[in-house]
Here is the input.
Amino acid sequence: MIEINTFDDLQKYLCYLPLVITQDIDKRITDWLATGGTLEDSYIKQQYRYASNYLNRTFERSDLN
Here is the structure.
């Protein structure tokens, strides 16, 4: 199971995410940081969970085939 809990973790797995998802996460994180947020905020952790969930669902499906 993949768990993304930090920005460094996210960086490791970006190559496995579709471009549209990486662009969406990048925009959300960039916008959040621009408004004064930090990488430790719950909104950013939500983005990490989104990436983790996508990857885990994708790998589960590929294991079944």
Summary: The chain has three helices and no strands.
